[in-house]
């Protein structure tokens, strides 16, 4: 039996009688990187927001570590969804100090996560002076502050230049060895196929494919076949 850290069973979300997500059943193995792929508007962010408690499912079930999802599950999750939640007038260290104070965590955790994301030498530089890549890394540091077992990253390389993408890719690759499972959503296939172990392809709110990445697999062809089959108008 596979050691799953997260499962969703027939997860659905409806907005004003429109089903945005339909019967999504994800299976995410512990200490792996799971790539959630799909066109813009496919339902990826909605799915991740339900997993992180930002949205309430209309129906279906979420299991975290083989137990029904509850608010307590969030203490073992970290997430960067949409833009990083930064205080622009604070330094990296001060941004993290806000989180450790709220969560009641020791301040030595600040140094640990700054080291992980390679931001320990930013000194008195405020967040509004950071590059996009540095802001994304600080957002990941905030998501890591509570020692999560599951890290959820929604389109984390949006707006990054090639150097920023490469740095972030190497950072994400390092997480499973640290005991952190990653769910990474993206619509950029080349970004995902270099780092993930499993993929799920969502289109039109439907999970059309789920499986391990196979060597020599033509991911672009698979993506186009699955996404094209279920795609809604306007995606």
From TrEMBL:
Keyword Nucleotide-binding set for record: yes
Keyword ATP-binding attributed: yes
Pfam families assigned to the protein according to its UniProt record, in alphabetical order: ABC_tran
Alphabetically ordered keywords of this record: ATP-binding, Nucleotide-binding, Transport
Top-level taxonomic group: Bacteria
Limits of the ABC transporter domain: 6-229
Record-linked Gene3D superfamilies: P-loop containing nucleotide triphosphate hydrolases (3.40.50.300)
Gene Ontology molecular function: any one: ATP hydrolysis activity
Family stated for the protein in its record: Belongs to the ABC transporter superfamily.
PANTHER family in the cross-refs: ABC TRANSPORTER, ATP-BINDING PROTEIN (PTHR43335:SF4)
Name of the protein: Lantibiotic protection ABC transporter ATP-binding protein
Annotated organism of origin: Clostridium aciditolerans
